[in-house]
């Protein structure tokens, strides 16, 4: 299997605070990797640094065969769908325009094509009837599904999601996880920070446990039942 994401010796710091410390990771075509770890362990920084939303101090990142560098950044970002904890929709744009705008402005699609793709994506996340709504007229779960639609409409080589359900009221989490499961089943390569154990068990090919800016443990999802390290075991115990 060819790797869609390759990370070697990645170091990221905020000033003198070292947050990601020598991380190596490969994500194969179609693979679903779930990242877990305590708050402050560097998960968000790691994910963001892969597309230089935070610029790494050192290390090598290759996405879809392109080494991430200043000259390739636009090209790389076009290949990555990113979903944040907070939906990051433009409040002054209708749901459909939130999706169409980047397709036209960044990806160079004609408006007609973009609208068609946006409608397909909205259909997939169950929001076909909300295309004319403004984000703030939607529930949190619907807003996050719209953000997911925006990310998949670009047909990304890899979809990265940073705690996509952790800002949601508990009763809205399920609808978002169900949409993500659908997307996973379609073969999309995914890198997801989440603490949803059932989701990880159902969807992940591999679970990675982050602590102190390092990968402390990784393996197939059944490591969630049978963690090898005390630190992962303690972390999982605290989740229940
Ligand atoms: P996680 O997502 O695992 O909770 P983060 O990557 O958000 O971890 O944070 C890792 C560490 O980096 C924390 O100590 C956090 O306070 C710090 N940090 C995160 N973002 C910034 C920032 N923009 N500037 C300075 N420090 C930051
Ligand atoms: Mg985080």
UniProtKB/TrEMBL annotation:
<keyword id="KW-0813">Transport</keyword>
<dbReference type="InterPro" id="IPR017871">
    <property type="entry name" value="ABC_transporter-like_CS"/>
</dbReference>
<dbReference type="InterPro" id="IPR027417">
    <property type="entry name" value="P-loop_NTPase"/>
</dbReference>
<dbReference type="GO" id="GO:0005524">
    <property type="term" value="F:ATP binding"/>
</dbReference>
<keyword id="KW-1003">Cell membrane</keyword>
<dbReference type="GO" id="GO:0005886">
    <property type="term" value="C:plasma membrane"/>
</dbReference>
<comment type="similarity">
    <text>Belongs to the ABC transporter superfamily.</text>
</comment>
<keyword id="KW-0067">ATP-binding</keyword>
<dbReference type="InterPro" id="IPR030679">
    <property type="entry name" value="ABC_ATPase_HisP-typ"/>
</dbReference>
<dbReference type="GO" id="GO:0015424">
    <property type="term" value="F:ABC-type amino acid transporter activity"/>
</dbReference>
<feature type="domain" description="ABC transporter">
    <location>
        <begin position="5"/>
        <end position="237"/>
    </location>
</feature>
<protein>
    <submittedName>
        <fullName>Amino acid ABC transporter ATP-binding protein</fullName>
    </submittedName>
</protein>
<dbReference type="InterPro" id="IPR003439">
    <property type="entry name" value="ABC_transporter-like_ATP-bd"/>
</dbReference>
<dbReference type="InterPro" id="IPR050086">
    <property type="entry name" value="MetN_ABC_transporter-like"/>
</dbReference>
<dbReference type="Pfam" id="PF00005">
    <property type="entry name" value="ABC_tran"/>
</dbReference>
<dbReference type="InterPro" id="IPR003593">
    <property type="entry name" value="AAA+_ATPase"/>
</dbReference>
<keyword id="KW-0547">Nucleotide-binding</keyword>
<keyword id="KW-0472">Membrane</keyword>
<dbReference type="GO" id="GO:0016887">
    <property type="term" value="F:ATP hydrolysis activity"/>
</dbReference>
<keyword id="KW-0029">Amino-acid transport</keyword>
């Amino acid at each position: 299997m060819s790797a869609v994401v390759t990370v070697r010796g990645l170091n990221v710091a905020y000033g003198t605070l070292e947050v990601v410390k020598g991380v190596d990771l490969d994500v194969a075509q179609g693979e679903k990797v779930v990242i877990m770890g305590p708050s402050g362990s560097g998960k968000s920084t790691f994910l963001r640094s892969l597309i230089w939303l935070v610029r790494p101090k050192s290390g090598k990142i290759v996405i879809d065969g392109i080494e991430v560098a200043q000259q390739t950044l636009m090209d790389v970002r076009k290949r990555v769908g990113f979903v944040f904890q907070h939906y990051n929709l433009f409040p002054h744009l209708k749901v459909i325009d939130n999706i169409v705008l980047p397709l036209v402005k960044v990806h160079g699609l004609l408006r007609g094509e973009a609208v068609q793709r946006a409608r397909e994506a909205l259909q997939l996340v169950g929001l076909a009837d909300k295309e004319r709504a403004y984000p703030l007229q939607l529930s949190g779960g619907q807003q996050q599904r719209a953000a997911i639609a925006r990310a998949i409409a670009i047909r990304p080589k890899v979809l990265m999601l940073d705690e996509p359900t952790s800002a949601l009221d508990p009763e809205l989490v399920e609808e978002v996880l169900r949409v993500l499961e659908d997307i996973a089943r379609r073969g999309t390569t995914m890198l997801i920070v989440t603490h949803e154990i059932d989701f990880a068990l159902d969807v992940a090919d591999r679970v990675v446990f982050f602590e102190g800016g390092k990968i402390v443990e990784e393996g197939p999802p059944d490591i969630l039942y049978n963690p090898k390290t005390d630190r992962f075991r303690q972390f999982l115990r605290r989740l229940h």
